[in-house]
Amino acid sequence: MKNAFKVSLLSSVAAATVTLMTAGTAQATNGMLMHCVGVDRCGMGGAGVAMGTSATDAAINPALGAKLGNTYQVNMGMFKADIKGFSTHSANGTLAAKRYTNMESGKNYFPNGSLGVNYKLSDDSSFNIYVGPGSGGAVIWNNSRTYGFNSTSQQDTSMEYKTIHLQPSYAVEYAGAKWGVGAVLSRGTIETNAFWGSFGGTNYYGDGTTDTFYGAGFHLGTAFDLDENVHMGLAYRSPIWHRDMADTYKNKVFSSPIDIPAQIHAGVAVDATDALTIAADLKFVQYGSVQTIGNSPADLVQLPYGNVNSGFGWEDQMIYMLGVSYALTDSTTLRAGYNHGDSPIKDSMTWENMLYPAIIEDHFTVGASQKITDNMELGFSAYLAPEAKQTEDGTVYAANALTAGSWLKHKQKGFQLSFKHDF
Known about the structure:
The chain has one domain: Beta Barrel (Porin). The chain is mainly beta. The longest helix has 22 residues, at 2-23. A 14-stranded antiparallel beta barrel has the order 1-3-4-5-6-7-8-10-11-12-13-14-15-16. The chain has helices at 2-23, 38-42, 291-294, 400-403; strands spanning 71-90, 98-104, 109-120, 125-140, 158-174, 177-192, 211-227, 230-237, 241-242, 263-271, 276-285, 317-327, 332-341, 362-371, 376-391, 407-422.
């Protein structure tokens, strides 16, 4: 009966995987990345690379599967992004023809969900499957940032980029530590009517068609105890190498594939009391190593319009996560957390990133879970990302004299619900 249940569950996971890998999702709160995975971690600001309390935790550290039994968790939710902007530009490249445009994004609501299943292969090893968001971002402006500069009001207004990940992973306990390895399989889509993208191509607009691309990477992790109350975790995820864009966007809107950058994630979890656990994590994201993301954009007023190596000028990002988990009773757990990462976009690149306004820095989170039987649990998490504002400072390029004073504002809020079942 138990084996039959496992087969049935695996079939359900396969069906969900096909559905999610076809749909995708758009989310960007730490740059182009989500700030957390699953209700347990999202309630704690994303912290918990050393913990291992739910099947989706393998998405941040594949070694955590060795801490878990036979279990699965489904997370489903929604978040709202409120994005506004102000663009200063020129109709002909001169200060005399300077234009000013107020902008507001009509793309506000986004689904958010993930699924994790963990199987014990033996007392010391496990197999895990995770399906969930990889990276993303979306904006549809009501006005064009370049209106009048060889563009209409309906060009250079939108970009939607989203990826979904499938990660099978294996974890084993050996020499007093947990070790994990996973393969990250990615499906992504991009659609945009961007004007020259990062200003590295010819006089070209994206036509708004959807380009689908695939990629892969790997994930390594370890988790170990310094003593019975202090737990450590460390994970490295390689870049997710995506294939080239189709001819619609390749070397026109984008100068290279939009790879997802490499990440290093480390943390400690301390059982301060029998009921209270405090977790602190650091994550380093290497945005600067991805050509399309990290290379500097070309100067808009210097002809020709740059070269095929130009990008969006993002910097590497360090993310700080702090979370607490408190077992109020044997059945009820409360969580809270904070997450901060400086914007990877420099002030001097604000206008260039109006179609990818990933400037949010702070996240305040809460969460809770409630056992409804000995092996079933319901969960909840929510976050508030207060408004971040970034203004073009008029440095670096000649074009910045035209775009100085442009600004972006971005805030978010969202929630997730979860169901966990140990079997």
